[in-house]
Amino acid sequence: MQIYENYSVKEHNTFMMDVRCARFVCVEHPDEVRQLAEHGVFQSEHFILGGGSNVLFTQDYTGTIIHPVFKGMEVLEETEDDVLLRVAAGEEWKQLQQYCLQHQLYGIENLIGIPGLVGSAPVQNIGAYGVEVKDTIAHVKGLRTDTLQPFALSNAQCNFGYRDSIFKHELKHKCFITHVIFRLSKHEHYTLTYKALSQELDRCNLQPSLQNITDCILRVRNSKLPDISKIGCAGSFFQNPIVPQAQYEQLLLTTPDLVSYPADNGRVKLSAGQLIEKAGWKGRRNGDAGVYDKQALVLVNYGMATPQEIVSLCQQVIDDVNKLFGVTLAPEVNIL
Within 13 Å and on the Cβ side, how many CA atoms surround 247? Predict the structure, then answer.
């Protein structure tokens, strides 16, 4: 492993915040996780950082940031129908996407273009364009940092929900994910329920295929989301709110064009981006902190915004949406 003291994390967070941490540890092999645990690193202030695409650092971090860099993909089982693929936590998500494209494996093509590392995917239950990663995860493996025992959780044991999992609750700060095992289909099938995706296929007069789906989604993403190499952001800053059916019906009386999707337990998921846009925030900025002009769900750092300015902007958006709709938005981004 590589250990750095008083280390700037500017190159490790997509908001491009130039804050420092007391110690930065690059974990180069899964066995090193146990070494860190045995030395008590996980019993003191720490944060496990993947690609830094879902975090906003608001100040210098006084603890240890642990960053997995170990990689690898291995086929564990293969049948006529599917492949069981073990992927290391430090593998970039885009590399897994490329592997699936090359080997004609189906299931995560709608998640193309999402930045970050594989180990972070189950924590957040990443999702986009009608697909969530939980639909392809068979097991999640790693080390319990509180007991030093290895764990292997099945899909059901991960308690996946909308942008949620057991790793945000019962196992928060108690485990280190080392591998994710995916069950990927060898049979051609697609999820085309997302309107913008089906429209893009029609616009380009394309039939669904693995290559065509990924190309179309990348075009849709690039038309709505900033290039994180040029504009600091963390993608979607807010979760889409889920409200009771009765509240949704009441909202329809004053806002009949509300975008909505069915959620669990008879509830309704609303579009946070639409609510923010209707509250008048799309394209507005306070200095270099702004709401992206092509997608109101995205807060951006146009260059020199401070963390406090992003946080202030976030709160202003939450307050105005709440005043207008009685709906409270929740950040999807980890704010440290």
Answer: 14
